[in-house]
Design a protein that fits this description.
Blueprint lengths: L5 E3 L4 E3 L1 H9 L9 E3 L7 E5 L13 E5 L17 E2 L18 E3 L27 E2 L15 E2 L2 H14 L6 E4 L2 E4 L4 E3 L13 E11 L5 E6 L3 E3 L2 E10 H5 L4 H12 L5 E8 L2 E4 L5 E5 L7 E4 L11
Parallel strand pairs: 6-8, 7-9, 7-10, 12-13, 16-19
Antiparallel strand pairs: 1-2, 1-3, 3-4, 4-5, 10-11, 13-14, 13-17, 14-16, 15-16, 17-20, 18-19
């Protein structure tokens, strides 16, 4: 029996596995076993599998598993809609629509200030008898659906994860993502760093991807990511790079995840990674007359660094 929403004892709120993963790597959640069933009067133990894993394969996503027995009246046990409400009285439920009518995902380029709020406090928090809050905390930016999905996503990692999910369930042709008010089909959101003509690339940012070398800067103040393949302008080739300054990494709420990956990759004999970046390449020529097409980011949600290619094999270039 599937369970897509659970009550997190540490966050003191009802959340889905995607949000649980972000809160774990930001340090708010520390134990993958401190979840219980979201059903009314049900305290069946729930574990968020893969929560604590530095996921090398994005096909293995965080998900909930239930242990123990549900209460007799638990909606999940009886395969009924959850009886959860927001603070304004609306239900955590949306009418199920066909795929072609479904609302597109919205990729927001900055997380709301409330996303990493500390755990809320309720009168029962220090009580010996467990009683879940009556209402789900309401946010204008993050809204649960009964399927556990959220309409807003905040990172390239989540966009890639959604793409894999839609590709697997066969709905990819009907899926779109809205970025800055523009609807983009999921099939066209990715562009490979593979000797493409710069002047033919979109005039707006998209997600570029490809294999890249990852090294510490000579100044030891950050990392340089240099894609193996180059972009082109006529007969000229442009080296594509991203600079990740240590200050930028340190300011990122989920820095633990990024640092873990960067250190593992940089320790390899040949430090390479499969990288996604949401940006628009900007060309320049160095003093040594070397041509570059650089990707500049100010937020590490705009990049995802993987040990292997998580996408289908046709993308593995």
């Amino acid at each position: 029996m599937a369970i897509d929403i659970a009550f997190c004892l540490e966050a003191n709120d009802y959340i889905d596995p995607d949000r649980a993963y972000d809160l774990y790597w930001s340090g708010i959640i520390t134990d993958k076993k401190k979840f219980i069933c979201a059903g009314v009067n049900c305290i069946a133990q729930v574990t968020c599998a893969n929560l604590d894993g530095d996921l090398q394969n994005m096909k293995v996503v965080p998900h909930y598993r239930t242990y123990g027995n549900h209460s007799d009246k638990c909606e999940i046990y009886n395969d009924l809609p959850l009886n959860l409400q927001y603070e304004n009285g609306t239900f955590v439920k949306e009418e199920k629509r066909t795929i072609d009518e479904s609302v597109v995902d919205t990729f927001l380029l900055n997380r709301p200030d409330s996303y990493y709020d500390e755990t809320r406090t309720d009168e029962w928090a220090n009580s010996r008898s467990l009683k879940k809050p009556e209402f789900v905390r309401l946010s204008n930016d993050t809204r649960l659906r009964e399927t556990g999905s959220i309409g807003n996503i905040y990172s390239v990692r989540s966009v890639v994860g959604r793409y894999i999910r839609y590709k697997k369930n066969g709905s990819i042709d009907q899926r779109r993502v809205n970025i800055s008010g523009k609807d983009i089909p999921y099939r066209t959101i990715f562009k490979c760093i593979w000797e493409q003509e710069l002047e033919n690339l979109p005039a707006f940012p998209v997600i570029y991807y490809g294999w890249a070398f990852v090294n510490r800067l000579p100044s030891d103040t950050g990392y340089q990511i240099k894609f193996k393949k180059k972009l082109k302008k006529g007969d000229d080739e442009y080296t594509s790079t991203i600079i990740l300054d240590d200050k930028l990494i340190e300011s990122y709420k989920i820095k633990k995840l990024v640092i873990t990956r960067l250190k593992k990759i940089n320790a390899q004999v040949k430090p390479t990674a499969f990288v996604f970046v949401y940006a628009k390449p900007k060309t320049n020529v160095s003093r040594a007359m070397k041509k570059y097409a650089n990707f500049s980011i100010t937020n590490l949600d705009m990049i995802d660094i993987n040990y292997n290619c998580p996408l289908p094999k046709e993308y593995n270039k």
